[in-house]
């Protein structure tokens, strides 16, 4: 029994982290420049982006650390070894390519109407094709 585990929102998490980094890097250079001028307020340039970084992990913890397990039984979404959502293969109605929050994704729609969005990554597509009997619609 081969088990495949993936981070559910990896692309979204990396893009947000990249946005924070774009703000943080110029602030570091600004802090270094403020040292040259002996300013006492240069520390603000480090604290403001650092607070964004801390908020990213505090507020985004639920989405950042979700994992998806795709195996013979179905698809499970877990957070710290606790199952958040689970769907068996016989409960899945459609597996389709879609966009979710402006990112390419795979939409998995259950018979009861609930949906799961996974990042459109090659490894996830291969795992879905391996375990699912349904084809991924484009």
Question: Would you write up a description of this structure?
Answer:
The structure is a single chain. It is built from 3 helices and 7 strands; from the N terminus they run βααββββββα. The protein has helices at 10-36, 44-64, 122-131; strands at residues 4-7, 67-70, 74-79, 82-88, 92-100, 103-110, 115-119. A hairpin with a 4-residue loop joins β6 and β7 (115-119).
| Fraction of residues in helix | 40-55%
Share of β-strand residues: 25-35%
Largest sheet: 4 strands, antiparallel
Overall 3D shape: elongated
Termini separation comes to 29 Å
Q: Please tally the helical runs, counting DSSP H or I stretches of 4 or more residues.
A: 3
Structural category:
alpha+beta
Integer-rounded radius of gyration: 20 Å
Lateral arrangement of strands in the main beta sheet: 1-2-3-4
> Could you give the order of the helices and strands?
EHHEEEEEEH
Number of strands: 7
- List the uncertain runs: none
Mean of pLDDT:
85
């Amino acid at each position: 029994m081969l088990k495949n585990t993936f981070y559910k929102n990896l692309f979204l998490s990396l893009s947000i982290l990249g946005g924070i980094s774009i703000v943080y890097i110029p602030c570091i250079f600004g802090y270094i420049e403020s040292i040259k001028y002996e300013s006492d307020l240069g520390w603000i340039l480090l604290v403001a982006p650092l607070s964004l970084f801390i908020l990213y992990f505090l507020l985004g913890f639920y989405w950042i650390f979700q994992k998806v397990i795709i195996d013979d039984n179905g698809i499970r979404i877990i957070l710290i070894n606790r199952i958040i959502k689970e769907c068996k293969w016989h409960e899945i109605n459609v597996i389709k390519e879609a966009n979710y929050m402006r990112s390419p994704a795979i939409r998995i729609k259950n018979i009861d109407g609930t949906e799961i969005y996974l990042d459109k990554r090659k490894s996830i597509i291969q795992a879905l094709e391996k375990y699912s009997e349904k084809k991924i619609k484009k």
